[in-house]
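Lecture notes, part 5. Sequence design as translation. It can be helpful to think of inverse folding as translation between two languages: the language of shapes and the language of residues. The source text, in structure tokens, appears below.
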């Protein structure tokens, strides 16, 4: 009842497809193609250049600093939450152990 039932595999009856013989083929060199004449490249669309001013540099640095500080605060708070939970679970385990020991001593 508790033994696993393994599926039985049918015995192979022979080759499903006959083996095919692969014959080597000879390589015949073709005539080399002449390279096409180089075409003139079409000018691409003109992209506007981004000009970095001191104001944008300060904004980027300030934004990056804010992101780093927010992510750091979130990670530190998560670490503190895990640490506080671990300490509280350990304290509950100690209290339960003391209660169980007191019950066995019959006090």
């Amino acid at each position: 009842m508790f033994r696993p039932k393994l599926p039985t595999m049918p015995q192979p009856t022979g080759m499903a497809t006959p083996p095919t013989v692969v014959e080597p083929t000879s390589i015949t060199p073709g005539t080399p193609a002449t390279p096409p004449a180089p075409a003139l490249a079409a000018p691409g669309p003109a992209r506007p250049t981004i000009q970095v001013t001191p104001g944008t540099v300060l904004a980027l640095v300030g934004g990056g600093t804010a992101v780093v500080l927010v992510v750091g605060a979130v990670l530190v708070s998560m670490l503190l939450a895990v640490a506080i939970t671990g300490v509280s679970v350990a304290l509950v385990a100690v209290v339960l152990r003391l209660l169980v020991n007191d019950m066995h001593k019959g006090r």
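The translated text above is only one of many valid answers, since several sequences can fold into similar shapes. The mean pLDDT is 83.
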